[in-house]
Specification:
Length: 138
């Protein structure tokens, strides 16, 4: 390994020019979990779970998009539910839940957590997509 040099390093377009050893750059990687209902032969209707692990090297904010799985053509009011559950690496549980009847919805920053958390999304008569960004040092 070469000793520390007080001369600027030529980085050929790989980030800012600076003095000293190379600085690691961080990159953001977007992640998502799409959960669609599946028929389960129960009187509740259409339900479906989905799971993911939150990774990266920094805190993460979750956002959710959701809407009914099917249009209610009969004119009745169907009840749709989306539940986002996060269990962090220390065992703390955070939950966000919404009951709705129609329309497309977006809610940002519903839960803030750290890498190592387990994400579970459950839907009833709904489709939901949870999004977040993981930050990595490259």
């Amino acid at each position: 390994m070469m000793p520390f040099s007080h001369k600027p390093m030529h980085m050929a377009g790989c980030g800012p020019h600076h003095w000293g050893p190379p600085i690691r750059e961080c990159r953001r990687e977007s992640k998502e979990l799409l959960v669609e209902p599946q028929t389960d032969n129960s009187p509740k209707g259409l339900t479906g779970p989905g799971q993911a692990i939150i990774g990266g090297g920094c805190c993460v904010q979750l956002s959710v998009e959701y809407m009914p799985a099917q249009q209610d053509v009969a004119g009745g009011s169907q009840t749709c539910t989306v539940m986002v559950n996060v269990v962090d690496s220390e065992g703390c549980t955070l939950t966000w839940q919404k009951v709705f009847q129609e329309g497309y919805h977006v809610k940002e920053s519903i839960i803030t957590t750290y890498p190592g958390a387990r994400l579970t999304v459950t839907v009833s008569n709904a489709v939901a997509r949870v999004r977040w960004c993981e930050i990595f040092s490259c």
